[in-house]
Every structure is written in structure tokens, then in C-alpha cells.
Amino acid sequence: MPVELGTYLAFVGASILLLLLPGPTVLTVISQSLAHGRRTALPSVLGVGLGDLCAASLSLLGVGTLLAASATAFEVMKFAGAAYLVWMGVKMWRNPPGEALLVPVAPARRRVMFRDAALVTLFNPKAILFFVAFVPQFIRHDAPFAPQAAVLVVTFSGLGMLNSWAYAALANRARGLIRRPAVLRRATRGAAAMLIAAGVASAFTRRAA
Q: Which residue windows are transmembrane per the record (predicted)?
């Protein structure tokens, strides 16, 4: 194995603790689950996995260093992600699920959910900078870099998917306890408001000096 077992277990433990902290990705998964139920879990989780995989890979390929060094690049990516979060929140607010609780989710809609989860995860410059600071701490400098990085990136992406699945399951269970469409609409709009708030908050985050 490219990574020593002790180092790998430490990485897994640290990753789990970090992933448990809810952020824009978790809010997206919860919102989609509240709006459409367990039918959205798989596309959302796969989208999170792809977003994490791309973000981690880009960070280790030098994009993270660029974001850390360039205020302009950081701002562009930050505002793109913030705008996308706000757009998703507004869209969810305007289209609550109450009138279509039993309608199957169309394949096209699943693709949209996959895309939303992937892009929210990817367009978070803080996440890419996090990978730059976090992953190298578990890489031995006297061993080949690429195999170690690949193992850690794939592991983190897999853990991110499991974490998203757990949040989706919890949101779906809460949704199942809400039998009245009017109450579900309010809950979904509450989640939409949280997405909008997360987008606004993201727009005001600052790059570390």
C-alpha cells in the first residue's frame, strides 16, 4: 500500500471529523432530499464524490497554489460558487415539492441533481485550499508522490460520499415524518433559505493571508 497503515488511519479519522461539519455541499444534499426524497440520494451522492475528486485533484495539480497566491482567481471562483448556491436556493423556493410528492423523479431531473451537487462541491475555493493544506500532511516525502496522493484523494472522496449519503438519509427520514404537504413546503423553503444564506456568506469569505 502506498500509504502506511498508521498514516492512512489517521487520515481517515481526521477526514471523518472534518466531513461531519456541515457546509454548502451538505446543505445541498439535505435540501434536495427534503424536496424530492430518497430518489435524489444516489445522484446527489455521486455528484459530491465527483466534486470532491475533482477539487482534490485540481488542488494537488497546482490550482490550490494558484488560488492561494492570486486574489483575483480566488474571488472569481468564490463568487461563481456563491451565485450558484443562491440560484439553487431561489429555484427551490419557487418550486416547493408539495404538489408532486408522489411523482417519480425524471432522469433529466436526476442529472440536474448530480450536476448541482458536483458543482457546489467543486466551486468552493476554500475546499481546494483545504486540500492543499490538509493532504500533504499525510504524504511521505521520501516516497513517490502520485500513488500516495491518489489513495488519499480517492479515500476522501469515498468518505465524502458516505457522509452525504448519511445526511441524505436523515433528511429523507425527517421528510417521511412530515405528512402534510404544506408543512413539507415550509421545510423545503427553509432549506432553500439556508442555501441562499450559505451563498451570501460564501460571497463574503476572505482568502487567508
A: 6-30, 42-61, 117-139, 145-166
pTM for the model stands at: 0.70
The secondary structure of the chain, three-state, reads CCCCHHHHHHHHHHHHHHHCCCCHHHHHHHHHHHHHHHHHHHHHHHHHHHHHHHHHHHHHCCHHHHHHHCHHHHHHHHHHHHHHHHHHHHHHHHCCCHHHCCCCCCHHHHHHHHHHHHHHHHCCHHHHHHHHHHHHHHCCCCCCHHHHHHHHHHHHHHHHHHHHHHHHHHHHHHHHHCCCHHHHHHHHHHHHHHHHHHHHHHHCCCCCC
pLDDT digits (tens, 9 = 90+) for 81-135: 677 667 777 877 776 555 444 444 556 678 888 988 898 888 776 667 667 767 7
